[in-house]
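User: Show me a protein chain along with its predicted structure.
Assistant: Here is one chain, sequence first, then structure tokens.
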Amino acid sequence: MDIREYIKNGFEVYYEHYNQVSEDGFCRWMRPDVPVEMKLADIDEEWSRWKMVPSVVTEDDIQALEKEFGLPFPEWYKAFISTYHHYFDVIPEQSVDEPLNNVRDMYNPSLCSLGYLPFSWDEEYGKIICIDLNDNADEETCAIYEIEHEVLFDDDADIKASLDYLYPNFKAYFDDTFLKYDE
């Protein structure tokens, strides 16, 4: 399986699924301050519909980020952060201006030092979603967990015991997040 192509197709299907404008002019893919390269249509003076554009994130950019985090990134995650620039609301946005800034903002030294790569938040922004890289020899076994972010501020907390299992691997997370829809 070509992981990058799988991620690309999944993003495209997800984008198209929610790319409808309602009768009152609302679209899920509207936001203020959309860079010119990502503008699909202006809605008014401030808001625009955005479109995905191919990412300019390079392997060197990813290697630098891996060094900052102190963790090797799985191939699924590398493709995930380097396929498209987007403003999806279920994962950190990746604008063309600063494509890895929001990814970089996910860094948490407590999680990373224990071998967990934080990569997103839940819908209420109370839980951090991360990849367990402690068995990173096989991406099929790099499970996805979530943890209440407040636990990370408690010096006496048992972080590993506070992690809640979500998915067996990144592909399962991706499929559930981008290829299943609540109508």
